[in-house]
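To the wet lab folks,

You asked to see what we're planning to order before we commit. Fair enough. Below is the target structure as tokens, and below that is the sequence we designed to fit it. If anything looks off to you, flag it before the synthesis order goes out.
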């Protein structure tokens, strides 16, 4: 199973399965089920809030001390606490029989409604919050606020049932946990991958349905698959719907990475429809307008709009546009691509969040939308931890990028270039060393790159090569380098590659026609206001 984190890889170990102990054994004797629960409860490392959740399960039970000489009849290795719990439950069972009947009727009436209910002991193990699961600070805050919803949405096919376990939702993101059960109702270790399904999100207002654009990330633990939907615009309604159409699951046996691990793929059709309540989250959202405008020296106009503090994190919104001078340099003019690179820091200057890179923004985490009528680009950034109402958070603009036209080039004899005699390509602060040309049997030309750069996204620029006969070769950069280290001779392994080159050219012209030019001439920094109004729109 894939485990993830926004800023670094986060691996989660397997979560143990546990069921609630049944009461068929009498006399206070612990069963194997008791032992299974205790193995989970008393592992060496537990979540910070796990004790509080367990104590809720034991609410109203007085635990008797074990005195010397007292003989307690239980299986070796089992705790006397489980025995006392069982005796207490057995003593109360007859008096509560009628109450349990009413409770069962209430469950039937609940239908597919999402409930803000206290989970059972077994649910705590098969959970987004289970032992060794990745839980970000926003999820913890939503849990503490009582905003974890429990759904009974399920679908069965091929002898396996997929059931929605927990739901966390507010105006910026949605997190859903899905479990797999076999035909006997037993939980199964496995995973559901987002590539094996289709997911649709809609906000609902009195029958009017609007599509919600999103990015998706997956992870989970041994029994619960986690799906996180990060919205590309704020969801402002009280209700939301998720429709999941899943066509494949993977079932696992053994420990991943061990010799006894095996995985089986099962194909089928599972359809899940989940109605999600956002009203409680909306009531706990802080809405903070920010009226700050700024124009960078090289032509990007910035208008801050505001911030929101949601139960599971928050968001920052602003608009940008290009000045006429910047638009004249940009590819596609006024609608040309541009990007702010910024970070958020606390009062001591420690970095809390950094904006996604250009590659992340364009290919996996797009958070902008161009309004063609106004020429404004609208930006929406979601954060897992954005408690600006509880601590000072400062916005700092580090740099910005404008995708511009370029005419830079260099002409050289490739047979004379080598690592010892490289050719210098110099443009817009980049000083790239072209260390010769080799051509392999497949007709691929390769030019190793060294030197230094000032534009970290130079490998994503548009490059072409032209030989002495006027034949053009599309070039792309292959290998690896760090955008944080401008010295390409310090651990980088990067080369330009071009196809269709069958012989060594007598002359080669390297051209850069499009540059993602980075500017560092801006000076914008401000503290995000700590106050606002309740809700997701201005009052």
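Sequence we intend to order:
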């Amino acid at each position: 199973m894939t485990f993830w984190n926004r800023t670094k890889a986060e691996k989660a170990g397997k979560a143990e399965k546990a069921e609630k102990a049944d009461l068929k054994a009498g006399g206070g004797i612990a069963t194997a089920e008791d032992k299974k629960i205790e193995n989970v409860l008393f592992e060496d490392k537990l979540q910070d809030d796990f004790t509080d959740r367990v104590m809720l399960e034991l609410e109203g039970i007085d635990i008797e001390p074990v005195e010397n000489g007292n003989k307690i009849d239980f299986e070796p290795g089992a705790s006397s606490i489980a025995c006392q719990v069982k005796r207490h439950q057995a003593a109360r069972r007859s008096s509560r029989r009628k109450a349990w009947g009413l409770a069962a009727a209430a469950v039937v009436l609940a239908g597919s409604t999402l409930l803000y209910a206290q989970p059972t002991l077994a649910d705590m193990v098969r959970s987004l919050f289970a032992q060794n699961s990745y839980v970000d600070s926003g999820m913890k805050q939503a849990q503490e606020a009582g905003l974890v919803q429990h759904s009974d949405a399920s679908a069965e096919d091929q002898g396996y049932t997929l059931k929605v376990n927990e739901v966390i939702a507010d105006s910026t993101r949605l997190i859903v946990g899905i479990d797999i059960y076999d035909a006997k109702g037993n939980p199964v270790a496995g995973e559901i991958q987002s590539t094996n399904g289709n997911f649709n999100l809609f906000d609902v207002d009195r029958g009017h349905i609007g599509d919600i654009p999103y990015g998706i990330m997956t992870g989970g633990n041994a029994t619960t698959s986690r799906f996180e939907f990060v919205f590309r615009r704020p969801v402002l309604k009280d209700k939301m719907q998720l429709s999941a159409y899943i066509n494949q699951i993977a079932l696992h046996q053994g420990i991943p990475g061990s010799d006894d691990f095996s995985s089986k793929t099962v194909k089928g059709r599972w359809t899940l429809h989940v109605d999600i309540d956002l009203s409680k989250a909306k009531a706990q959202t802080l809405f903070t307008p920010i009226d700050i405008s700024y124009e960078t020296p090289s032509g990007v106009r910035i208008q801050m709009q505001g911030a929101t503090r949601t139960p599971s994190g928050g968001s920052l919104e602003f608009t940008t546009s290009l000045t006429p001078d910047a638009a004249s340099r940009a590819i596609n003019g006024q609608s040309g691509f541009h990007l702010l690179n910024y970070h958020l820091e606390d009062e001591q200057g420690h970095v809390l969040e950094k904006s996604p890179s250009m590659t992340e923004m364009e290919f996996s985490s797009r958070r902008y939308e161009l309004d063609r009528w106004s020429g404004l680009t609208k930006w929406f950034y979601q954060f897992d931890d954005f408690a600006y109402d509880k601590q000072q958070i400062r916005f700092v603009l580090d740099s910005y990028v404008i995708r511009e036209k370029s005419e830079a080039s260099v002409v050289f004899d490739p047979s004379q270039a080598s690592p010892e005699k490289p050719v210098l390509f110099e443009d817009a602060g980049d000083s790239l060393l072209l260390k010769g040309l080799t051509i392999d049997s497949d007709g691929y030309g390769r030019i190793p790159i060294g030197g230094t750069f000032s534009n970290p996204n130079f490998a994503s620029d548009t490059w072409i090569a032209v030989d002495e006969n006027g034949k053009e070769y599309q070039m792309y950069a292959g290998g690896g380098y760090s955008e944080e280290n401008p010295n390409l001779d310090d651990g980088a392994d990067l080369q330009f590659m071009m196809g269709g080159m069958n012989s060594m050219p007598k002359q080669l012209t390297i051209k850069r026609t499009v540059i993602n030019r980075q500017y560092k001439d801006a000076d914008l920094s401000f503290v995000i206001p700590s106050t606002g109004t309740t809700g997701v729109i201005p009052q």
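Structural context that might help your review: The radius of gyration is 29 Å. Residues 80-93 form the longest helix (14 residues).

Thanks,
Computational group
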